[in-house]
Fold each of these.
Amino acid sequence: MAKDRKPDDARPSGGATRSGGGNPHRARPTGKSGRTRPPTQVVANAHKRPWALIAGAVAVVVFAAAVITYAVVQVNEANADKLASIEEISGVEAAEYSPGQDHVTTEVDYTETPPVGGPHDGNWADCTGTVYDVDIRHENAVHSLEHGAVWITYDPEALSDADVDTLADLVDGESGRMLSPYAGLGTPISLQAWNHSLTVDSASDERIEQFADFMTYQRSPYGDGDDRNALAFPEPGASCENPAFAAAPLVEGEVSTPIGPSDMPTEDQG
């Protein structure tokens, strides 16, 4: 049996209303001007600063300043390191071997240890940034000096592996340089170029790099007028490449063996 419905007059008149409603025609409160107050968020957005753009601009300025500063420092250091003469490097010893030294196949009793000039083998030791782990034959090494190379030698008993690595980093892949141990050197490290030598006690000595940079292929000219190249190596433009020697270097004390290119005159050349 269906329940009796409430009489129609029990329903509220005027239509349904939402909870908390009221008179829909009630007037809204107004301020002094009678206008409503704008939302706070709208005002905040109107005055918001572009912080991302500002930060980006500052970063660009800082980076540019750092680049300019670095460039200036590098230029200043390069200018400070320039040498007008090899004699500006403390401790450099000089000899006076003239160009045109004899090519020989016999062992040479050199005046200097290690040698910096004089008669030498017709085959040169490879000096294309070559790091040797043997005491290469001195007569072949001197021929490399004639071609403009710098020969760095060290006493294997006096240097640590780290010290040898430091020297190797200065030589490896740098055309016109070679590195080898040298038995009985009498000093931890010695550098040789044609007619010049320098001995140092430490692989961190800044004179090593100064000597190598100045004397490799005589990169920094010195002298004035007619004497400008008076102390230059005898054979500018001569090759340092001898891959056969690099692959199987002759060791000090071994008999001269033709290996790779040679400047020795042939019978046809007289």
Amino acid sequence: MDMAQPDSGPIKPRDTDLHWTEWALDRLREVVDLDIRTMRATVREHERVLRGAEMPDYPLMQSRLSRSVRLSIAMTERIRRDYYLRMQARIASGEQERRRAKREQAVETAVKAIARPAEPEDAERVRLLVRERLTEDEVLDVQLDLLSPEEFVRAVSRRIGLPPDPSWLPPGWADEAVTVEVVAETAEPAEAWPRPADESIAGRLTPPPSKPDSS
């Protein structure tokens, strides 16, 4: 039986291997639970239905369900064992500590670029959002080794719906950084991040219609 884990503090990024392992184990638990409930329902149906020529082959059904449960449990143990072996290899090679340091460095870089200095509590809010995004977004987590700090800030700002400070980005990147992909579950309301009106559209007069050619 799984024990409830106590609240140990703010959300921290976890590796994609652990995320997938937990997902696979959850699905296997669902399969085993469904098979066991089906077996019980089959027993009840077996006791209710009168024997006859059209009676289903209940022993065969139960045998197949039992085999499915055994295979699911064996697969669960295999997934756990393989994950444990991979974790030991990563610890021995220093990969786990390197990934943890890389994530924390990326989080702090994003905080410096996105958080508003005038609001001290904004830094912690951005830190939690970025950590949560790294935890949930496996693609972004893998890209830590591929993106430069500036590219990572642009990518994570689009995902959390908060634009970075244009002065932090290299020249030529500021205009692109203001286009943010707003994420509904994490983005602040529109009024929290006012944006200047597009001068190329706002205030532009509509040209009069052209006169038809009388010739």
Amino acid sequence: MAEILSQRPSASWQACVTTIKCDAIEEYVSILVKGDWTSSCTWYQQFKSPAETQKKGKVDKKTRQRIALCQGPQCHRVTDYRDQLLREEQERLTPAQQTSSGSIASP
């Protein structure tokens, strides 16, 4: 995976979002990947992020239990989605780069 991250193509979009059921906290979450390949989980930002926990005050018992289960910004669900988009972007660019290399000459 390190080789994919070192060869990051520029994204053809500004942001991409998907919603999944997180099996760690048993709740639906949205995963956001921006065009610069930064990624985040909206549930983490809302409930576990240090800056946000100080702002919102008390949370209920069920949410506190989920906070303990949340894996944070390096969660494999977040990184897997980002890596999937990276692979798709590289595959999209690969045929175009091969065609523009001049391997097919026009009359």
Amino acid sequence: MATSTRKEDKQDERAQDAADEQASNEQAEKQQDDADAAAMANGQPDGEASDDDQPDAESDDIAEQAQDEKPQGEASGEDDSDEEPQDANDESPAGKPIDVPGEASLEVEFNTYPANSYAHDDLGFEEDDLIEIYRNMLLQRRFEERCRQMYQRQKISGFLHLYIGQEAVSTGSIQAIGLGEDTVITAYRDHGMALAMGMEPDACMAELFGKETGVSKGKGGSMHFFDAERRMFGGHGIVGAGVPLGAGIAFAHKYRGDDEICLCFFGDGAVNQGAFHEAANLAGLYDLPVVLICENNQYGMGTHIDRAMAESKVYRHAVSYDMPGGVANGMDVFSVNKAVRDHVEMAREGQPSLLELKTYRYQGHSISDPAKYRAEGELEGQQEQDAIARLHKYMLDEDLASEDALDEIDDEVKQETKDAIEFAEESDLPDEEAIYDDVYSEDDYPFLMR
């Protein structure tokens, strides 16, 4: 594993540019001195115009008359300051000579985080931390399973994108940031991220039921979970649309001068969207404190990534935007946590980065997708490296928990999701008048004609 030094390279390039500009200015001054010396040799004092250059008396009179007629308070157009005009090379890099090397090559090292490479104590986790991590991942799994049941019973309508199989990504990532301080933005498969950030299952389920007690007051549904207090900024339904917003949030962090960073999540399908590349370019250009995290679950709807992307190793796209890139096994919560920690540290130092977390979704793209495009035995093979089962085995092997204790956690989580359903069913639908709320700023509300 190696850490990229692109930020240092930028600083070296800027220092070299400054040195080149200084040398260019010195050369220009020398040429001017030579010209002045030549003029003196021809009998023309420095700075004195020749006879051919002298304006006639009539021109002087016209100039004086024009100056007298200029309205009071209007600038003459002449620069009264003592400063010398700047050289063109000081204004724009375009003033530099065009230089194309005879040969060019690029060698880049990326950060890699394979599975089974880290132990809990390597990351500073105590036994209680592991129990909470396991519980949170299991909560996401059981919650999503209940969502599938509720959709089939027509309690939930509209779109429903389940997170089953990807739980290590959300939990491992959130364990690497300052919850309530750092910001998070994600795509439409957002239930797991919401639960990883501590949003209540009751309010999350109520949102899916369209109830006023939901996290978005019943108006957002599955794809638009939101919690300002926890700094969770969505939940966005358009592929790739959240990435520019994540760059904007990171710009706000930099503008305000705080120490906070933004984790910006998106799927592999979003990498083919122009919005992703525009945002990545600005992040690299302005050194924004953002970690661009691709949750590569292998499929964009029903198309495998290798059939949709010329360069399917997403982390390699970091090179185009002059930022470090990394890739981690998203089916190992420890690998995810270590990867995100490293990249968050870069972001706090003003270095954006692109991190690919390779994971796998067990369900179809949405609840209506039967996933017939998978190869025979593909799902079963991926489930053999299930992140929850991996952590379960690790805790037993390391004598960090007993089988009975882990079973008890599962029972508690199942009851919690059952209670969430009861809460959602008992909650009220939003009032019809509330349709106008939460659309615009309400400082001068109401201002809409009804």
